[in-house]
Amino acid sequence: MDELLAKGMSNADNCLFPENLVNDVQTPLFLLESSFDLFQLKETITPFIGGGKPEWNNCLNNSLTLCNATQLEIMQEFQKIFIQTLQNLNYSPSRGMFIHTCHRHGHIFFKEEWQCSCVVNNVTIAGAIGDWYFDRNCFQQIDICNVPRNCTSTLDFDAFNRKCIELNK
């Protein structure tokens, strides 16, 4: 507990928050995240503000075009705080970072989408992770566009793969 107090944390629970943990990670670490992460917005923010989950259902689950001005402002404030937190981390050349504005969560599990879905500074997820992993580039990029993007594909899996292959020739 003395170590936590020395770091300015009065509550041991705070050590579970990533911003209080990342600076102490000694191994190489790659942060891949959306600044408009669907899970975080849906499960940690919206239940407590703006009418709760029912009020946000259409905006978060159906279409970003159904979000009202207040909901977009709340999402933008979430993004602003998230980016400020990342920018306050100590610099580490072994820490890579790919922060995009796609309104999604869990896309890291779909390798097919690494090549086509999210792009930051003209680099795909696969390109950023590859450059970082093989020490070609300490990729630390944040897309600062303050509007969430819908990056899901309406194509079926085979059509999506064909498009992806065509784009990456």
From TrEMBL:
Its EC number is 3.1.1.-. Transmembrane segments: none annotated. The keyword Secreted applies. GO terms for cellular component: plant-type cell wall. It is found in: Secreted, Cell wall. It holds the Pfam family PAE. Keywords: Cell wall, Cell wall biogenesis/degradation, Hydrolase, Secreted. It comes from the Eukaryota. One of its GO terms (biological process) is cell wall organization. InterPro entries: PAE/NOTUM. Its main location: secreted. It is an enzyme of class 3 (hydrolase). One of its GO terms (molecular function) is pectin acetylesterase activity. The keyword Cell wall biogenesis/degradation applies. Belongs to the pectinacetylesterase family. Hydrolyzes acetyl esters in homogalacturonan regions of pectin. In type I primary cell wall, galacturonic acid residues of pectin can be acetylated at the O-2 and O-3 positions. Decreasing the degree of acetylation of pectin gels in vitro alters their physical properties. PANTHER family: NOTUM-RELATED, PECTIN ACETYLESTERASE. This is Pectin acetylesterase.
